[in-house]
């Protein structure tokens, strides 16, 4: 990863034209110059020139960014503002350190193969005491005041059984294992779960494309139904799917907070988890994870492991990209669940701007038999911004309000997207408006029962 000092020439490319102000969601809410992309670039330049220090005000401005990348797309000089801001956050973490709670969670829980699942399992057992259900919206409200949890916030419910946990407990789903190659060890017998490192779902056919599935934290712990839908659709498409059980968080939340070393550790662990298998592709149904696996892993590990990380990242495809471009699925409309439904689509920032993927999700929607109705601004940021939604909830929901209103104004029955994080944020925003629009992942539209 480049340091802030290494971005000095990039910072100097900014001519302060202000084009970014018209697309910056944080500036759109507060209308203050330091909240804009050019304001943040100017602050970074002043810091490098020793005109200002790493003050609390500087840190606040760097943290008030949702990393939507709209500024970079709009900039006539192609100034890489999102990466400048990430470098500034890394500078802050290096000079001041992370807050204790974040440091402890990142280094001792998120980066642990044992403690992360254990901590989430404990939280899933505890959630009934702290939260009450909102059944009609598949979410939770707090029962009494809690830190960082707004009274009206629709909190996503942790799954009773996590996606990867279910994979390790379902030996009946492991079909005839493909013929092993030197880099593809056979999984142990179904009764031996201590050393099993993957679930393999396939038939004995070497002509089938071999796909590694990366779940990501939100699918694993909160929305396993999306992971299950992906496996079913991939199998229908004729793929042999391998789910490494020792995969970790992609590390993008950690990177977004400036903890480069932990992000590198997580990236390397995921590299090791997937490279054991001779895969044709690696896919994920999370736009943020996909952007991280494709792009950020190269920045984190490229200097130390250039061949390994290039081999890994070159195989990564978003699930919508994989289905349309590589597997070229074509499903008859008559078999699908949503004929006559009106669906609008939200472009996740990390998919459209980060990976350049916009058409493929829309093709899948049309393939489902639903009628696609575009909102006025489908690629406007939903305001999630990773941990920004946690530390700046009211700010985040102010950004989201325009998105929720845009969705409601379409009159659509369903809003589909390709990012679990966006799904959670949009569902919260629609809840605030009192809209009953169903929120689903695009892949769920290809099955008979999209989740509520």
Taking strands numbered 1, 2, ... along the chain, how are they ordered across the largest sheet?
A: 4-6-5-7-8
Helical fraction equals 40-55%
Structural class: alpha/beta
- The span between the termini is 40 Å
Taking the sheet with the most strands, its summary is: 5 strands, mixed
Flag low-confidence runs. 171-195, 332-337
In the CATH scheme, the class of the largest domain would be Alpha Beta
CATH topology of the largest domain: Rossmann fold
Task: Label the CATH architecture of the largest domain.
Answer: 3-Layer(aba) Sandwich
The residue-averaged pLDDT reads: 88
Strand content: 5-15%
Q: Count of DSSP E strands?
A: 12
User: Which radius of gyration do the C-alpha atoms yield?
Assistant: 22 Å
User: How many alpha or pi helices?
Assistant: 21
Net shape: globular
Number of domains: 4
How would you portray this structure in words?
- The chain is an alpha/beta fold.
- It has 4 domains: 5-97, Alpha-helical ferredoxin (Fumarate Reductase Iron-sulfur Protein, Chain B, domain 2); 101-156, no CATH class; 163-326, Rossmann fold; 333-446, 3-Layer(aba) Sandwich (Rossmann fold).
- 46% of the residues lie in helices and 10% in strands.
- It has helices at residues 8-12, 25-30, 37-48, 56-63, 70-74, 81-96, 100-110, 115-130, 163-168, 217-221, 224-236, 252-256, 260-275, 287-301, 306-313, 319-326, 349-355, 359-367, 388-391, 393-410, 420-433, and strands at residues 131-134, 139-142, 155-156, 198-201, 210-214, 240-244, 281-284, 316-318, 342-345, 371-372, 414-417, 438-441.
- The strands form 3 sheets. A 5-stranded mixed beta sheet has the order 4-6-5-7-8. Strands 10-9-11-12 form a 4-stranded parallel beta sheet, with helices on both faces. The protein has a 3-stranded antiparallel beta sheet with strand order 1-2-3.
- The longest helix has 18 residues, at 393-410.
């Amino acid at each position: 990863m480049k340091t802030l000092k290494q971005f000095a020439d990039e910072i100097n490319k900014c001519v302060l034209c202000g084009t970014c102000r018209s697309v910056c969601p944080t500036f759109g809410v507060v209308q203050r110059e330091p909240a804009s992309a050019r304001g943040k670039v100017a602050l970074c330049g002043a810091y490098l020139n020793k005109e200002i220090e790493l003050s609390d005000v500087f840190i606040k401005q760097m943290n008030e960014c949702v990393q939507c990348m709209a500024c970079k797309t709009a900039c006539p000089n192609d100034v890489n503002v999102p990466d400048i801001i990430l470098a500034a956050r890394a500078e802050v973490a290096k000079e001041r350190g992370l807050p204790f709670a974040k440091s402890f969670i990142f280094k001792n829980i998120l980066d642990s193969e044992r403690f992360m699942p254990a901590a989430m399992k404990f939280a899933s057992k505890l959630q009934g005491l702290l939260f009450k259900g909102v059944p009609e919206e598949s979410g939770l409200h707090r029962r009494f005041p809690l830190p960082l949890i707004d009274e009206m916030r629709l909190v996503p419910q942790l799954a009773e059984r996590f996606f990867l946990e279910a994979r390790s407990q379902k030996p009946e789903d492991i079909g005839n294992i493909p013929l092993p190659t030197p880099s593809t060890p056979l999984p142990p017998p179904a009764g031996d779960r201590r050393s099993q490192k993957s679930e393999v779902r396939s038939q004995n056919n070497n002509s089938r494309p071999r796909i590694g599935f990366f779940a990501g934290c939100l699918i694993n712990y909160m929305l396993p139904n999306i992971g299950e839908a992906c496996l079913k659709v991939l199998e229908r498409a004729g793929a042999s799917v391998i789910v490494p059980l020792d995969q970790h968080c992609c590390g993008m939340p950690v990177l977004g907070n400036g903890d480069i070393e932990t992000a590198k550790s997580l990236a390397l662990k995921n590299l090791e988890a997937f490279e054991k298998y001779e895969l044709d592709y690696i896919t994920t149904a999370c736009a943020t994870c996909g952007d991280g696996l494709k792009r950020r892993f190269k920045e984190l590990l490229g200097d130390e492991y250039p061949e390994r990380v290039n081999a890994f990242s070159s195989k990564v495809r978003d699930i919508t990209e994989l289905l349309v471009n590589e597997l070229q699925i074509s499903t008859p409309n008559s078999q699908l669940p949503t004929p006559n439904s009106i669906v609008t689509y939200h472009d996740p920032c990390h998919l459209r701007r980060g990976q350049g993927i916009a058409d493929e999700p829309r093709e899948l929607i049309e393939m489902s038999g639903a009628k696609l109705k575009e909102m006025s601004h489908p690629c406007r940021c939903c305001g999630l911004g990773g941990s920004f939604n946690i530390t700046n909830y009211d700010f985040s929901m102010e950004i989201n309000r325009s998105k929720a209103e845009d969705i409601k104004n379409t009159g659509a029955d369903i809003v589909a997207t390709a990012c679990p994080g966006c799904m959670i944020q949009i569902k919260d925003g629609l809840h605030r408006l009192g809209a009953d629009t169903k929120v689903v992942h695009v892949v769920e539209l290809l099955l008979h029962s999209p989740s509520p």
